[in-house]
Design goal:
There is one protein chain. It contains 13 helices and 14 strands. By secondary structure, the protein is of the alpha/beta class. The longest helix is centred in the middle third of the chain and has 21 residues. It is globular. The structure holds 2-phosphoglycolic acid (PGA) and zinc ion (ZN). 2-phosphoglycolic acid (PGA) binds next to loops.
């Protein structure tokens, strides 16, 4: 066990595959005492314009231009000489050095994926060197707390090849008293939904985040199916399990038509005000407790209207809107826009910057939801991050498929480790409208 300070001995990087079969960068940080921290960068599909740049070998024929050999080279040639022999335990100093080395606002020189994999590998190496669980070694980890999980059950939008316009139709097991109970509820409702789809001869193929990806007659049919699946699992929609949407509305907005184009169900173009009115309708008809990216990332007036109409009753989550950036979140706070922020590490590029955004959220009463990406890996770092930062919620996709359940399973192990003292956000993690 290494105590005072943890010295970095070496960094290595390699190209591995993510859960979709695309390459991604993996970084190993080894300390002078021989401890290892290993991290893999995730990748988004519906990306915000303000996200950190993802470096890929666009001009190469390998992996159709998706290779990450240039990111790997950046670690070997530039990052390793900078960080070797440095103290890993000062995460803020490490991340500041990475940002300075890159020198651009969007990490477009070395790549946000490069820097994030290094940043997380350093944090993991410190925990390994100290011989403590990762959630105890991360900055701000004095009183761990397990998050309420948001499970994606039905996929659409850019995450699936079906006819649903919205990206994610999710459930929140609000009444479950413990994290493990919430996982059981999520999995049971997932399986009842699968039976319902099978019985009606509907496809049970899944989308990128593990949610079922059926063709349905309308977007609202997905909400009806969730209600039916919750009831079939013996639970009461609303009381036991809430519904949540990720509209990913930036992908629906067409600047030429100055409106939100629903291609399928029903096919029509909505103005911001019409879309807000539809959300109000759906919230009346269904027990929807959370709406993410209900409007596009640059539609601040629309967001303001949505926040005025629903912000006191429904959790309104800014994903593309804030892109995990503290400065943009501050702008949201000033304008009274949204009341929760999605935290995606690779949107911003280093752990320290994400922690700062979470700090801004907490100081202003915004909920933080630690989130995975469509292109996930077997890396379960976000589970420990959610626990260490007492994030009230986590969103890692369906309770199905390896790259998804590795996060939920890690949380189950943490719950066991914390034993009777395990604190769980549960329904309290979901405070809007109560
Ligand atoms: P993404 O999807 O990783 O494709 O951005 C997740 C989300 O929008 O929440
Ligand atoms: Zn989203």
């Amino acid at each position: 066990m290494e105590s005072n300070g943890v010295r970095i001995d070496s960094l290595r990087a390699r190209e591995v595959l993510d859960a979709r079969g695309f390459p991604t960068i993996e970084v190993d940080v080894t300390t002078s005492g021989g401890a290892l921290g290993r991290a893999q960068a995730p990748s988004g599909l519906s990306r915000a314009a303000a996200e950190a740049f993802e470096l890929r070998d666009a001009r190469s024929e390998r992996h159709n231009g998706h290779g990450v050999q240039s990111a790997v080279r950046n670690v070997t040639r530039h990052v390793a000489p900078l960080l070797e022999k440095q103290d890993a335990s000062n995460q803020a100093a490490i991340d500041a050095a990475l940002m300075e080395l890159d020198g651009t606002t969007k990490k477009s020189d070395l790549g946000g994926n490069t820097l994030l994999a290094v940043s997380i590998a350093v944090a993991k190496a410190v925990a390994a060197a100290r011989g403590v669980p990762l959630y105890r070694a991360l900055p701000g980890s004095d009183s761990p707390s397990l998050p309420l999980p948001m499970f994606n059950l039905i996929s659409g939008g850019t995450h699936a090849d079906n006819n649903l316009d919205f990206q994610e139709f999710m459930i929140l097991p609000l009444a479950a008293p413990t994290f493990s109970d919430a996982v059981r509820v999520g999995a049971e409702v997932y399986q009842s939904l699968k039976s319902i789809l099978k019985e009606s001869g509907t496809s049970t193929a899944v989308g990128d985040t593990g949610g079922f990806a059926p063709n349905l007659r309308a977007n609202v049919h997905a909400l009806e199916l969730l209600v039916a699946a919750i009831e079939r699992a013996g639970l009461t929609p609303g009381r036991d399990v809430g519904l949540a949407l990720d509209a990913a509305a930036t992908t629906l907005y067409h600047h030429a038509n100055r409106g939100y184009e629903f291609t399928y169900s029903p096919r029509r173009t909505y103005s911001s005000a019409e879309l807000v009115a539809s959300y109000e309708d759906w919230v009346r008809q269904f027990p929807i407790v959370s709406i993410e990216d209900g409007l596009a990332e640059d539609d601040w007036d629309g967001w303001q209207l949505l926040s005025e109409r629903l912000g006191s009753r429904v959790q309104l989550v800014g994903d593309d809107l804030f892109a995990t950036r503290a400065s943009t979140l501050r702008r949201g706070v000033e304008r009274g826009v949204a009341n929760a922020v999605l935290i995606k590490l690779n949107q911003v590029g280093t752990l320290t910057e994400a922690l700062e955004t979470m700090h801004v959220a907490r100081s202003n009463g915004y909920a933080t939801i630690v989130s995975g990406r469509a292109g996930e890996t077997e890396d379960d770092f976000i589970a420990d991050l959610a626990v260490a930062t007492r994030a009230p919620q986590i969103k890692a996709g369906a309770p199905c498929r390896g790259e998804r359940v590795t996060k939920y399973n890690r949380l189950l192990r943490i719950e066991e480790e914390l034993g009777r003292s395990a604190e769980y956000a549960g329904r309290a993690g979901f405070s809007v409208g109560r």
